[in-house]
Amino acid sequence: MTIFQFVYNLLWGDLISIPLPGGSSLGLSLLVLVLVPSGIYFTLRTRFLPFRLFPEMLKITAEKKSHPQSGAISGIQALVISTATRVGMGNLVGVVAAISAGGAGAVFWMWATALLGSSTAFAEAVLAQIYKEKDPLYGGFRGGPAYYIHHLFLKNNPRRKRSVTAMLFAISGLICWCGISQVIGNSVSSAFTNAFHIPPLYTTIALVVVCAVIVLRKNATVKVLDVTVPVMAAFYFLATIYIILKNTGQLPEVFSRIFQEAFGIRQAVAGGFGAVIMNGAKRGLFSNEAGSGSAPCAAAAADISHPAKEGLLQAFGVFIDTIVICTCSAMIILLTPPGLTEGLLGMELLQAAMDYHLGTFGVVFIALILWLFSFSTFIGILFYARPNIAYLFGDNWLSQTLYKLLALVMLFVGGLAAYTFVWDLGDVGIGLMTIFNMAALIPLSRQAIDSLKDYEGQRSKRCHASRGSL
To answer: What is the end-to-end Cα distance of the chain in Å, rounded?
Structure first.
């Protein structure tokens, strides 16, 4: 426990504290010190990709589905899987926590860090595509950070079967996803208890049974997520649009609060400017998971015509997660009179806000949406686990099935009780994943940039050819 607490504090605690006006301070954790500069680096190296190539992201997303080879998934399906895990409880409860601790200004810093994270997400997805390999168990392809880390550290020593750093990444991922499984179970059972007064045991059994039917089948994951992810995101987005239209008159005041508090006009005097920045930054960085190495596990599985196209799709996934879905949650809270949510935290605060906007229907709606978000996250993280289990234990169904059963047990246990240690275990897991992933991502960044240049060169030639034919 002492070692675990040391690692947790090293990753998430304030490594550096910068004094600010008004008696506040800006605490910077190791992960923020790694991810924010890396995001700036990739944004500059890709020549501001999130802004410059946003129309291209939309164009690729709107392309007709290609027909990938047997067992493989399309680029859009890889985006759906990564979106399923990004768009989870963090988009609901996490945003509420960021605003509760950092005020409305946290939303601005959430947006800013998401734009930086888009470039990092692009780079890691491109590398996952470059170093993907055939998947003999599930068909199609597999890959992710464990595989490009392996290449980086063992390219001059092909006789070694595994890299220590790659193994540490894979182990960290499996630990993280087990922890997340428990958090999922607890969040869903709590929401259903609040909304329907259903005992946690019944909710948990139903969730575990539905998840087991899907994850224990060979290739049901993608088909299920293809349906659930667009539906849940669309319903949540439409409900938020309705709430915004209903409260249009408050929007100028809300946006004024976001920008004023973002730059500490009031918080600098009150000594809370550091909390504004860090709560928004942490939510933006860790909600979209850019740099953690999770999404590349899905990106590698895509059968797509160019690695950069998958990179652009994953960069767009960060936009969907943080700029769209997290902003929806923020608007629901900020358009609610503060007196109605005073003293409430987490899911209770969000349900109280929805009760104000939509009445009893809102409480029921948010519980069902959380169920869908959590369900899709669980299905998605087990897809992520596949290549990492294979890297550690080889290609066999026994290790794949045993990990799925372990995750289902954690899902069940979490539904009945919340164990803080296991929740922190998930945080430590994703923190370690990020460190190991970034250790390879920066040295291999040249290949991601070269892939982008190659893609843009091909696109330019196609444009010139089409103009010439006219």
So the answer is: 70
Per the CB < 8 A criterion, the answer to whether 42 and 119 are in contact is yes
> pTM (2 decimals)?
0.88
- Judged on CB neighbours under 10 Å (0-12, 13-18, 19+), 160 is exposed
Q: For residues 309 and 75, is the Cβ–Cβ distance under 8 A?
A: yes
> Quick one: DSSP state of residue 156?
T
Mean pLDDT by 10 residues, the chain (470 residues): 79 75 68 85 91 89 66 77 71 70 76 85 94 89 93 80 91 88 81 81 88 80 76 85 89 85 56 51 63 88 90 89 82 84 71 86 84 83 91 92 91 76 72 91 93 90 66
Q: What does the buried/exposed string (b/e) look like for 307-346 if buried means 16 or more CB atoms within 10 Å of the residue's CB?
A: bbbbbbbbbbbbbbbbbbbbbbbbbbbbbbeeeebeeeeb
What is the number of alpha carbons within 13 Å of residue 382 lying toward its C-beta? 30
Structure tokens at 375: 């369900």
- 302: which strand partners? 73
